[in-house]
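User: Quick sanity check before I run a bigger batch. Here is a single chain. Can you write out its predicted 3D structure?
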Amino acid sequence: MILIFLRLLLAHLLADFLLQSNKMVKEKQEKKIASKRLYLHILFHILCYYLLLWDLQWWYIPLLIGLSHYLIDLGKLYLQNSINSRLLFFIDQGVHLMILYGASVYLSGAALVNLTLSPQSLLIIILVIFLTQPSSVIIKTLISVYTPNTEMEKEDSLQHAGKYIGMLERLLVFVFIASNHWEGVGFLIAAKSIFRFSDLTQAKDRKLTEYILIGTLLSFGLAILSGLILNYMLFSHRI
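Assistant: Done. Predicted structure follows.
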């Protein structure tokens, strides 16, 4: 069952985060049921589930999961507003995961076509993907309530540089934790503090400092948690 759940979870991460652009999200929010990108998004989900299950004997499972995803997303689009959008995002993801778990329980006795990837490899791939775009979306959603006004926003900076820096630091922390080199995490924190010190001093904005600190702690926390999950699952022989 764990192997099936990992396959479905990987498909979900690929379709819901890596294959869904900001343009798709924006159009879905604006046009809702009339959005063509909504149906393209559901198609990506169904294709990813087929690709990861790789067994046409259970052809209806990806279709049912895709239908459930469509209904959940549609409900969220019509219910969300500026007040409840953060809460609905996590409820939405939680319900999706519950459905994937239910599907994996239903398929637990099925003899699916074996993939070349082992459960351990699947878990590593899932955690690495999670620490890229999905973690960025989660952190952005959590701290979206804070909007510090600062003169630094007017300065030129590399496009999406902050997002990619966050991804790289999470992946590095994940590698350090997975390899039991905790001292590397301390080095990263110290290095980031040094590079950020001049920017925060120049801005003279306490809200910006707190905003960056919250984002950094969330970023490091997700990476550390992912590394601990990997170590626990591997060393306790859960998979």
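The chain has a mean pLDDT of 87.

User: Great, the batch can go ahead then.
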